[in-house]
Design brief:
The complex is a heterodimer of chains A (about 110) and B (about 110). With about 110 residues, chain A is mainly β. Helix content of chain A is about 0%, strand content about 55%. In chain A, a hairpin with a 7-residue loop joins strand 9 (about 85-95) and strand 10 (about 100-105). The chains are: A mainly beta (about 110), B mainly beta (about 110).
């Protein structure tokens, strides 16, 4: 069974640009959540989707958005990038009724 | 609101000696608790989870954790450290119907030969 797949693995963007990250969950998993990891703030929750609906959102500005498709794949978008958005972005998926989350390898975003 | 405090930011042990990573949690409901490990430039791997069954939870690679409700603690232990245990460890709490994980700040484990 394939794990959680995140693409791309690495990205370099310029301030002011926007970026889209992609996450394919484990087959059969319908919940996808996103986390930002930085040395200063640690791991912080961005949002969670289930059956194309956002069920919870973390304390991030509106520049951070996401969506989930009918096949459970998810994307997150960050607009008007700032230097502080440089981070490892992790996606996790879980199955219905299971609290255990499986994480992808992450996308390393660098904003210059 | 749920939160986690990892009491040690860095733990250094000798190979073959016990490892203890301390975690206290705060939760409004009956929480699910987890320990995840992250090796350099890798994603997060689940070591073990507590979901209101047995209070002593056994995980992968010889790790175990004990849930103590009276102390709101969920400490992680391993009887004998191996060089491959060098990594960052995260204690995590999740409340039912919250649909999110709350992470502690992490504990970096160094294993000395």
């Amino acid at each position: 069974k394939a794990g959680v797949t995140q693409t791309p693995r690495y990205l370099i963007k310029t301030r002011g640009q926007q970026v889209t990250l992609s996450c394919s969950p484990i087959s059969g998993h319908r919940s996808v959540s996103w986390y930002q990891q930085t040395p200063g703030q640690g791991l912080q929750f961005l949002f969670e989707y289930f059956s194309e609906t956002q069920r919870n959102k973390g304390n991030f500005p509106g520049r951070f958005s996401g969506r989930q498709f009918s096949n459970s794949r998810s994307e997150m978008n960050v607009s008007t990038l700032e230097l502080g958005d440089s981070a490892l972005y992790l996606c996790a998926s879980s199955s219905v009724g299971d609290t255990e989350a499986f994480f992808g390898q992450g996308t390393r975003l660098t904003v210059v | 609101a749920q939160s986690v405090t990892q009491l040690d930011s860095h733990v250094s042990v000798s190979e073959g000696t016990p490892v203890l990573l301390r975690c206290n949690y705060s939760s409004s409901y009956s929480p699910s608790l987890f320990w995840y490990v992250q090796h350099p430039n890798k994603g997060l791997q689940l070591l073990l989870k507590y979901t209101s069954a047995a209070t002593l939870v056994k995980g992968i690679n010889g790790f175990e954790a004990e849930f103590k409700k009276s102390e709101t603690s969920f400490h992680l232990t391993k009887p004998s450290a191996h060089m491959s245990d060098a990594a960052e460890y995260f204690c995590v709490v999740s409340d039912a119907d919250d649909y999110k994980l709350s992470f502690g700040a992490g504990t970096t484990v160094t294993v000395r030969a």
